[in-house]
Design brief:
Two copies of one chain form a homodimer. With about 350 residues, chain A is of the alpha/beta class. Chain A has 13 helices and twelve strands. The relative contact order of chain A is 0.12. Chain A binds a DNA duplex (16 and 16 nucleotides) through α2 and α4.
Chain lengths: ~350, ~350
DNA sequence: CTGAAAGCGCTTACAG
DNA sequence: CTGAAAGCGCTTACAG
């Protein structure tokens, strides 16, 4: 039924070895033979069996991206499609297929990745999350298998990472509020165990300190990457006897929650409270008022991650850097402008 | 280096055939042997080579999902992550891996799918879009390869499809506006070549006709699934000498554009114009005012599509239905409520 | 420049 | 219940 290399060989009057060499553009094959073989391949509709090729070559031309478990980091949904689009675009361009995998529990996740790695199912792994003490990362290191992570990881200094400079980004956001004349600036953070939360908090603190403004612990609220979290943070902050006049918010979705709450309570943005946020998702622009946000280059993050992972796979010993920083950019909109 | 079935066999004192049978739970293997072999597998860390297995079994335990090209149907981004999550959850649960592929041009798209199909890279294909006269579908039919499409396709009656009843959904949305006392209802549509646009228009028309209200062509505007489109539609409609008092809008993102435009021009929703939309994306709830929307069960769409495709793959001749309808549900919010 | 042969790691009739 | 053998479709030294 299926057309194999043998069928091509027979029809072209050569050996299977020769056909194989034609396919892989072996240099020592005559132009003439090559042309004849290619013609036959077209005629009888030959397509190489990827599985057979993989088995003998020990490569798969496939990378796997591991999604965060639904339970955690649901916020990823927001940039999920953008990162994936970046990854799939670049991997396709490099001739690699993309496998998506996930697990519902930590154990399942580890099992899945182990199966892919040990079963030689893929050539590299891309982790779409960054947790501390991750057994998956430990396993990948142990197996000496090519992988990259989007985000930063403090446990290992020598792994391939693609990330933003979140400290600097948050510093920039805070500086912007200061330049608008704010002196009482709060910070609404995400889960404290995530590195991204910590980095953004650090940048905020740095900017506030530098400007000799107060860093007050009651103006720093932790939560999840959910709108409900924003709502709660807002209630807390607005209930204080001394309130901030501006907030740096760790994620656009959280800002949405804050905004809704403020509107409900009859406050006005940016007059009563100014907001700057992160990620610059499409809807930041569509909010009322439009939200100022740090664009972190989500697509770029995915594109670069795929590129660097594949580069790593192809040159056994990577000569280039392990840590890659995607530039960010503050997009100023109405939510942070001081009305004069 | 890698542990193979032979290593296990040697260590367990059996033949490779026996090990293979243990792995596949062959019934005629003694409990004792099975246990011994499994123990050895654990001890030396055996993981089956998926490629070798695929080569001989002619199955891959993998399905591919084909993304719409960036150029078209960008709106898919919005439900993209939800559909994918549904698909990946279900396929993982069924023991299938998920491959993602796409192409930048129609030709590239066809080539990619052909390579996957003819190269026996996957066991089934899931198309995430529904176009008329699609050469990819023609090829899949011709090759008699298992595939399913999310959406409806009129070219072939006998293919596996997973869709909403968009006519009914739109009918329901329109009825809701009528029940709120509206008699002048317009429709903002998507690209006319997409079946989803046509179906939703049909449902709207049906409801309006049935209520003996006017169906006016100047109240029906076509566009893209983009906010800019909504903005433009709004300008057009509000510039009419006789304006509608309510709109059914084909997609939430378009509604965002409409809403922004209305706010800019000083109109109020729902007082001046009521809105009902489709998809019920997270941000519908967060808009000011919150947008009434038809929840089309995006996750469910993906979950069911994966389930039916895999079922199809596993039973050569499917005894069950080919067309699957995911139920929808109107979520009423402020944007469509008539203030009394 | 090309071919015959061995082998990648598994499965599966066939035979016992 | 288990083993020896053939084979899935390819690649790649080795030899010429």
């Amino acid at each position: 039924m299926t057309v194999t290399i043998k069928d091509v060989a027979k029809r072209a009057g050569v050996s299977p070895s020769t056909v194989s060499r034609v396919i892989s553009n072996h240099p020592r094959i005559s132009e003439e033979t090559s042309l004849r073989v290619r013609k036959v391949m077209d005629e009888i509709g030959y397509h190489p069996n990827m599985m057979a090729k993989s088995l003998v070559s020990r490569t798969t031309s496939t990378i796997a991206v591991i999604l965060p478990r639904p339970a955690d980091e649901l916020f990823q949904n927001l940039f999920f499609s953008e990162v994936i689009r970046g990854i799939v675009t670049q991997s396709t361009r490099s001739g690699y297929d993309l496998l998506m995998a996930t697990g519902t529990t930590e154990r399942e996740e580890l099992e899945t990745v182990t199966r892919l790695v040990r079963g030689r199912r893929v050539d590299g792994i891309l982790l779409l999350y960054s947790r501390a003490n991750d057994p998956v990362i430990a396993m990948l290191k142990e197996a000496d298998f090519p992988f990259a992570i989007i985000g930063r990881n403090e446990d290992y200094p020598d792994i391939l990472t693609i990330d933003n400079d979140n400290v600097q980004a948050s510093y920039d956001a805070t500086r912007h509020l200061i330049s608008q004349g704010h002196e009482r600036i709060g910070f609404v953070s995400g889960p404290p165990n995530l590195i991204v939360s910590r980095d953004r908090l650090a940048g905020y603190t740095k900017a506030v300190r530098e400007a000799r403004l107060p860093v007050r612990s009651d103006w720093i609220v932790e939560g999840e990457f959910l709108q409900e979290s924003g709502y709660r943070a807002m209630s807390l902050l607005m209930g204080l006897p001394e309130r901030p006049t501006a907030l740096v918010v760790v994620d656009d979705v959280v800002t949405f929650g804050i905004l809704c709450g403020l509107v409900e309570l009859g406050y006005s943005v940016p007059k009563d409270i100014a907001l700057v946020s992160f990620n610059n998702i499409v809807f930041s622009e569509l909010a009322t008022p439009p939200i100022s946000s740090i664009d972190i280059g989500i697509y770029q993050l995915g594109y670069t991650a795929s590129q660097e992972l594949i580069r790593f796979i192809q040159h056994e010993h990577p000569s280039h850097a392990l840590r890659h920083i995607i530039p960010h950019r503050l997009v100023v909109r109405e939510s942070s402008l001081r009305r004069s």
